[in-house]
Amino acid sequence: MSRVFLYDTTLRDGTQAEDVSFLVADKIRIAQKLDELGIDYIEGGWPGSNPKDIAFFKDIKKVTLNHAKVAAFGSTRRAKTTPDKDNNIQTLIQAEPDTVTIFGKTWDFHVREALRISLEENLELIYDSLVYLKKNVPEVVYDAEHFFDGYKANPEYAIKTLEAAQQAGVDCIVMCDTNGSSMPYEVSSIIKQVKKSIKTPLGIHAHNDSECAVANSLVAVEQGVVHVQGTINGFGERCGNANLCSIIPALRLKMDHDCVSDEQMQNLRITSRFIYELANLVPNKHQPYVGNSAFAHKGGVHVSAIQRHPETYEHMRPEKVGNMTRILVSDLSGRANILAKAEQFNINLDSKDPVTLEILEDIKKLENQGFQFEGAEASFELLMRRAMGDLRNFFSVIGFRVIDMKRHEDEMPTSEATIQIKVGGRIEHTAAEGNGPVNALDHALRKALEQFYPQLKETKLLDYKVRVLPAGKGTASVTRVLIETGDKNSRWGTVGVSDNIIEASYHALVDALQYKLMRDYAG
Fold first, then answer.
1. CB burial readout 162-175, b (16+ within 10 A) else e
2. Residue 433 belongs to a domain with what CATH number?
3. pLDDT at 353 over 90
4. Could you give the number of structural domains in the chain?
5. How many helices (H) and strands (E) does the chain have?
6. Could you read off the pLDDT of 97-120 as tens digits, one per residue?
7. SS percent in the chain: helix, strand, coil, step 5
8. What is the pLDDT of residues 330-343, one digit of tens each?
9. Cα-Cα-Cα-Cα dihedral sign, residues 441, 447, 449, 453
10. Which of 96, 110, 413, 470 has a beta carbon 3.0–4.6 Å from 406's, enabling a disulfide?
11. Confidence of residue 354 (pLDDT cuts 50, 70, 90)
C-alpha cells in the first residue's frame, strides 16, 4: 500500500467559488476539521493578498493540529526584483507556515502575454524564488500553473520549467490543469513523459471545467504521483476543483493507497456537511459517496436485491464514509420498499400482512395526486403508523382561518391566522400574526399547542418549498409543499398537497408537529 499525500486548498481555491466565503473563525474551524479527517496539508490562503489570510496565519498558530501541516500560497518573485526584496516572497516567510507553495508560469503563451518577459527570464524567476524559499522555510512545494496546456503547446519548454524547480531542490512539483481542459488519457500520457526527466516527487492539481478533475487526479496517482491537491465538496472557481470527498475513498478503497485511516474516512460525510454549513450552502444530495442520495434506492427490484446482498446495487458500504443506505418510497415502489422502511422505523410488518398492500396502494394513490415522500419521510412514517393503528392522536384541528390584508399600496401586507384545536377533551382557540399567511398559521398552531406540549418550543421550521403541479394550469394548479423541521437533535421532512397552498402548508405543518410528539412520547 503506497502513500499518497492529501493537500487541501478549500480555504484558498475553494473560497474563489461563487457564493463561497468564510470568516477567519470559520477557516480555523475548517482547518481543525480537516486535521481530524487526516489531511496532510491545509493551504490557508495567500498572506500577501488580503488581511483575512494574514489573520488566519496569525490565529492558526494558537491552534494545535495533530497531523496536518499549514501551507501558505503565493507566486514566484516579480521580474526585475530579487527574492529578498519581493514583498510577496517576504510575506510568505513572515507568515511562518510549515510549508510554502508558490506557482510559476509553464505555458509559453502566458510567459509572453501575461508576464511579458522572455522564456529564459521566466526560468530564472522560478529557480531564484525556490532557491531562496528553500533557505528560509521548512518545506517548499512548486505549483506548475497551466502545466498540461503548456506541455501540449510547447513540451520542451514546459519540461524546462519543471527542471528549474528540480534544480532548486524543491520538495514537490505539482502539475496543474489550471483551465480544467485536459482529458484523463492526456494526463496519463504526459506524466509518463515527465517522469523521464523529473525525479522530484510529483503532485497533481486539477480543475473540473471538463468534469474530469477527479478522474485526472486518480489517473495521475496511477502514473506515480504522490501528492494530490483538491477541495472538500469540489468547491472552487468556475466549475470547481478536484473533489477530495470523491478522491479520498477512491484512493483508499478502490486503489488501495494509504492516505487516511479507516476511522478517519468515516468522518468524510460529516466533514462535507460541516463545510457546506459554514459556507451557508445547501448540500448536493447527489454528490458521490457523501450525498444523501448516494446510497438511496427507489425501484422495488433494487430494494429487494440490496436487502439480500447490498453489493447488488451499492458499489461499497456507505458506512465506510459515514453515510447510510436509504430506502425511498414512491409509486415505483414494491413490497420490499415498504418492508425496508418499516424495519427502519422499527415497525413490525410482514410481507403477507394485508396492511402492507394497503400502504402500497395508498402511496401510489397519493403520489398520483402529487404527493412525494422521498423528501418527506416523517409524513411517510405517520402514514404507516396510521395504517397499523398504532399512532396516538396528540391533537386534532377543528378549523382555521387565515386573513391576508394590505391596507395601503405603499405598506407591506399583514397576515393573521386563527385556529381551533382539541387536545383530549379541551378546546383551545388561538390567533397569531406572521410574516405571510403560512408563517401566521404556523405561529397560531404552535401557540395553541405549546401550553399542552412545551417541547414544541424546541422545534423550528428550517426549510419551506413549494412546487406547482402540474404545469400549465396557472393559478388553478395543485401545489405540493415540502417542509423541513428540526429540533436540537434532528431534522425531518413532511409533505402536503392541495389546490389551495394554505391547506397544503397546513397538512405539512400538522405532520411536522405530530411527528415530533410521536417520537418524543415513544421514548
1. bbbbbebebbbbbb
2. 3.30.160
3. no
4. 3
5. 18, 16
6. 999 999 999 999 999 998 899 999
7. 45, 20, 35
8. 545 556 666 666 67
9. positive
10. 413
11. confident
Rg (CA), the chain: 29
Phi, psi dihedral angles at 74 (to 5 degrees): -165, -165
pTM: 0.72
- Asked whether residue 88 falls in the same domain as residue 158, the answer is yes
> Do 170 and 48 share a domain, yes or no?
yes
User: Which stretches within 38-136 are classed as H helix?
Assistant: 51-59, 87-94, 108-110, 119-136
- How much of the chain exceeds pLDDT 70, in percent? 91
DSSP 8-state assignment for residue 254 = I
- The Cα–Cα gap between 39 and 272 comes to 13
- Location of C-alpha cell 425531518: 492
The domain boundary, picked from 315, 345, 366, lies at: 366
Where residue 23 sits, what CATH number does that domain have?
3.20.20.70
Cβ(258)–Cβ(329) below 8 Å: no
For residues 472, 473, 474, 480, the Cα torsion angle rounded to the nearest 10 degrees is: -100
Domain that holds residue 219: 5-260
Give the least confident one: 274-288, 308-322, 347-361, 387-401. 347-361
pLDDT in the model for residue 376:
79
How many angstroms separate the CA atoms of 443 and 451, rounded?
A: 13
Mean pLDDT of 477-481: 84
Contact predicate 1/257, CB 8 Å: yes
Please give the pLDDT value at position 303: 59
Task: Evaluate whether residue 268 is within a structural domain.
Answer: no
Same-domain status, 326 and 251 = no
- Kindly state whether residue 409 falls inside one of the protein's structural domains: yes
Residue 52 has pLDDT above 70, yes or no: yes
DSSP H or E segment with residue 109: helix 108-110
What mean pLDDT value characterizes the chain?
A: 90
β-pair type (396-405, 99-105): unpaired
**Tally of residues, the chain:** 523
CA distance 437 to 453: 23
- Residue 471 clears pLDDT 90, i.e. is over it: no
DSSP symbol at 141: E
Give me the pLDDT at residue 335, please: 61
Tell me, yes or no, whether 53 and 182 share the same domain: yes
> Three-state SS for 128?
helix
User: Does some domain include residue 482?
Assistant: no
Query: For the residues 140-151, what does the mean pLDDT come to?
Result: 98
217 and 86 part of one domain: yes
CB 204 within 8 A of CB 172: no
Domain boundary (452, 476, 500) is at: 452
Mean pLDDT along residues 442-450 = 94
Q: In this structure, are residues 271 and 33 in contact, taking their beta carbons and an 8 Å threshold?
A: yes
Q: Does residue 283 lie within any of the structural domains?
A: no
Do β-strands 172-177 and 139-145 pair in parallel, antiparallel, or remain unpaired?
A: parallel
CA distance 359 to 341: 11
> Do residues 212 and 136 both lie within one domain?
yes
Pair (245, 330) in one structural domain:
no
Same domain, 110 and 218: yes
